[in-house]
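BUG: 3D viewer hangs when loading the predicted structure for this chain

Environment: internal workstation, default settings.
Expected: structure renders.
Actual: progress bar stalls at 90%.

Input used:
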Amino acid sequence: MSEIVIPQFSPHTQLSQMISGYWVSQAICTAAKLGIADLLKPGSQSCQQLAENTDSNPGSLYRMMRALASIGIFHETEPEQFILTPLAEYLCSDHPQSLQATAVMLGDAPHYQAWGNFLYSVKTGKPAFDHSFGMGVFDYFKSHPQDAEIFEQCMNSFSFVEEKAILDVYDFSQFKTLVDIGGGYGEMLGTFLQKYPHLQGILFDEEYVISHAEPTLAKHGVVERCQKVSGDFFTSVPQGGDAYLLKHILHDWDDERALTILQNCTNAMDEHSKILVLEMIVEPGNIPGGAKMLDLNMLVMCPGGKERTESEFHQLFAQAGLKLTQVIRTAEDICVIEGCK
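Structure tokens produced before the viewer hung:
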């Protein structure tokens, strides 16, 4: 495969490309929906073959593939013949860090339609999702199981990367029982229990989520060491843990509801327990970081959701009767924000 050369563009061209960025995300989303990367995994295929296998129009599919190849996603080896590239490999469904579900979720409804009403969120401070669909995003997932499944797959794909970064900087051997609040299918908790065989786990989430967790826990070989508990973290959380994990939970909610979640954790904790909030932190000024863009997605999608600064976490912890003891940066954007009573 020939070397991919990334040209340098003028500021005008750079901004033009940013403005049309959704063209790219929609093309990637469509390729992910069609499973193009999986079809190319065995080797080179013609666009005609890909069209037949995806029930697509050959000419239109070629135009999409040609455009994606121009930015390094797929590679045209000869006219209308394509192979995978290192970028495209992440669109394979069986890749350990697959972004296939992420591409589908962010490019498809509900995200795409909600972002089409971004102006509403900026004008009102309210989630454009609710404005677009007449209900909150989590209520939507309860009544749209296919979208909920894509969401959980997407969360798992982020977990694969974030888990390693967290384990590289934080020692969980000090604990006996981990309680994963809003832990989804248990990808993170399963990974942590697998690494530390002495640990017990409690996976806590709503029933419609917990009911699908068994395969993930079985994959990690921790079914016997992990109790599944369903419930509502706005009401209470399970007792009996000496570490309470909240990964990308508080950012879904405004300060009032985030405080309720933290206070319920405080009530469940004993004097030796720790709370570990695993979130991005918004850096000051013009310092770049994924948190600032993810913060916009929280504005669009969630009721008062937002990414927070380190100072805001200190204030939130204090209001919940917690002391923020340390913030540990990882190799990824996610941080370990540790607290105790």
